[in-house]
Amino acid sequence: MSHGAKINISVEYPPTGDKLEDHAADRNETVGALKTRVLTAFSLKEGVDDKGQLLTFVLFHGRVPLVDPGVTTGSVAGDTGHIKLELERERHFFYYMKHKIVSPTASATGAQIKAMIKAVDPSFDLTHVLIEEGQGGHEDQAINDNQTVSLEVDATHPAKHFFSKPPTTFGAG
Predict the structure, then answer these.
(1) At residue 114, does pLDDT exceed 60?
(2) Which of 2, 35, 129, 162 lies 20 to 30 Å from 97, alpha-carbon distance?
């Protein structure tokens, strides 16, 4: 069991091949602080670029996005003394209640979105109806399990917000 004060951290940014190696990182460093260091080292900035594209980045440990900036690198590493991370441009995400959920794909079906929600909120009931909140004067819309929804986020496509409600049966009784 390796719970010393230091940890080896390796971060790669695949689009450019940039790598950051820190062989004496503090296990108590937060993911938010590490992300700031990584963005600086790779000369990257978050915000809206000159083309109107929203640029945000997320660190991944395997296929798991590290979205809580307050988590320590030591808790991510667990009992190991080394973690390997990848930095990716965050383009596909949505919100469910208070949760920001990163998607590995640009679109997903209602059933896939429900599965992603269940992964972060175990109390989510998969039998509930998924509702996309209306934006810009549009009404809320029920999303069927087999319906595909774009999760692309940029200057012209704001992040989607979802909520759920129990299925209703009209005319019963």
Answers:
(1) yes
(2) 35
Q: Clarify whether residues 35 and 81 are in a common domain.
A: yes
Domain that holds residue 139: 93-165
Which residues is 72 bridged to in the sheet?
A: 30
Same domain assignment for residues 119 and 70: no
- Which SS3 state, helix, strand or coil, does residue 40 take? helix
Sign of CA dihedral 32, 35, 41, 46: negative
| pLDDT single digits (tens) 42-92 | 999 888 777 666 678 889 888 777 888 999 999 999 999 999 999 987 768
Question: Is residue 94 within 8 Å of residue 103, measured between CB atoms?
Answer: yes
> Using CA atoms in the order 98, 64, 72, 122, what is the torsion angle rounded to 10 degrees?
40
Write the DSSP symbol of residue 52.
Answer: S
DSSP label of 140: P
Residue 129: how many CA atoms within 13 Å on its side-chain side?
Answer: 12
> Could you tell me the two tokens for 120?
């972060």
> What gap in Å lies between CA 127 and CA 59, rounded to an integer?
32
Reduced to 3 states, what is the DSSP secondary structure of residue 114? helix
Q: Does the pTM of the predicted model rise above 0.85?
A: no
